[in-house]
Amino acid sequence: MDERLWGILTDSFPKLLKYGIEVTVPLTVISFSLALVIAVVVALIQYARVRGLRQICRFYVWIIRGTPLLVQLYIVFYGLPSAGIVLDAFPAAVLVFGFNEGAYMAETIRGTLEGVNVGQLEAGYCVGMSYGKIMWHVVLPQALRTAFPALSNSLISMLKGTSMAATITVMEMFRQAQVINGRVYESLGLYVEVALIYLAFCTILTWLQRRGEKRLAGYGGARR
Amino acid sequence: MMLEIRDVKKSFEGLKVLDGISLDVEKGDVVAILGPSGSGKTTFLRCLNYLETADSGSMVFDGEAFDLHSTQKKDIARLRRKTAFVFQNYNLFQNKNVLQNVTLGLTSGMGMDRQTAQKKALDALEKVGMANKLRNYPSQLSGGQQQRVAIARAMATDPEIIYFDEPTSALDPELIGEVLAVMRKLAEDGMTMLVVTHEMDFARNVSNKVMFMEGGKVIETAPSKQFFEHPAENRAREFIRTILESRQ
């Protein structure tokens, strides 16, 4: 490797890592938390067949899943200001990532909710518990436990997806790589470098997922 | 009379499953509900706890009348707090350990404080011989152990009656005994029980009353001894004979 390239990579590495840790990770964590809350609420509404709200949830899932993430980012950040709604880049990205992944995760959780044996609900009724309490203490925890691998998938996919925030001017890790590249013209080296940092982040998440699954195995274990 | 059930009817998509079932239960009665598969026994039991909604029928429970077709939610909840149900496939809460399975209903169903609930749960689990497995999850237990925990969960709420829906039908033969032993002890302690079962020894030796059903109708209701020694109805005689023969 020539000295110039080596110099560029060693110079840029701490900067990229800094933006990764200070922007990409928080952006992922906040967006994912929002997505999880949306997903649980939307899934529960559909599972419980709440009239009216249920149709709204279906509509939401339909719209989100039927349109590209990139287009959604553009509509919210570049489009909405024309309608008088002006958002900073970071909150706009959080909203779009959260609502986008939330739709997919809602379908995951709805599926695992439906998969919980109806006998669990009946047993709860028979010891005098209300529907809400049974959902909270018994059905939802089981559904989330089953959904855990799929939700981990969503988290990993979201972490990489945050690079798209670069297109709406969020100064995150990938955008930083673009900026450095604009100065030094070293596309191959820099973009491979940033790819490797994403890979490292995802490897940590995969490792965490495995640990989480091991811990959850004790709790509830395999369902019949 | 503790429980008077009158004229319960229920159809599934035009198929009559229950065609006017009536039954009287005294406090301390252990009633075995017998009959061939598909005779409506389980559906009947489920209607009594509103797990199924009957098309028509009524019930007087402890002097209070209930319409089995339409009742307010809060009345159903109150009724369920006085009864307990043991399922064929146990239905233990899969995400809760043995102790939590018993306490959950007490704290969040009956509104008991945590300490009293723990004490009651330990007491019940002691009685079914499961106090040494408090931290185990259902998936780590045998079917017989799970069913004993389910019975402890039922007992702990101090119900006035416990409904058993084929409690040993899902068990391997060698595990049936431990569950029947627990049920026999409950009966001896004076618990009122309605038991849908295929266990003829239990029906004969533990229950004091038999209701024999077929095709959604009650064919015969009689004291157990009389039912087994001198069944009044032909169909009952045949049923007993087939069962006894099939076991040889």
Description:
The complex is a heterodimer of chains A (224) and B (248). Chain A is an all-alpha fold and 224 residues long. Helices cover 81% and strands 0% of the residues of chain A. The termini of chain A are far apart. The mean pLDDT of chain A is 95. With 248 residues, chain B is α/β, with parallel strands linked by helices. Chain B has one domain (3-246): Rossmann fold (3-Layer(aba) Sandwich), CATH 3.40.50.300. In chain B, strand 9 (209-214) and strand 10 (217-223) form a beta hairpin. Chain B is globular. The termini of chain B are far apart. Classes of the chains: A mainly alpha (224), B alpha/beta (248). The A-B interface holds A 117, 119-120, 122-130, 133, 137-138, 141-142, 145, 218-224 and B 49, 51, 77, 80-81, 83-85, 87, 89, 91-96, 104-106, 108-110, 137-140, 150, 153-154, 157.
Write the layout of secondary structure elements.
The complex is a heterodimer of chains A (224) and B (248).
Chain A: H1 3-47, H2 53-66, H3 69-79, H4 89-115, H5 118-126, H6 131-161, H7 173-184, H8 187-218
Helix pairs in contact in A: 1-2, 1-4, 1-6, 1-7, 1-8, 2-4, 3-4, 4-6, 5-6, 6-8, 7-8
Chain B: E1 3-12, E2 15-25, E3 30-34, H1 41-48, E4 56-61, E5 64-67, H2 73-82, E6 83-86, H3 98-109, H4 114-127, H5 143-156, E7 161-165, H6 173-188, E8 192-196, H7 200-205, E9 209-214, E10 217-223, H8 224-229, H9 234-246
Parallel strand pairs in B: 3-8, 3-9, 6-7, 7-8
Antiparallel strand pairs in B: 1-2, 1-4, 4-5, 9-10
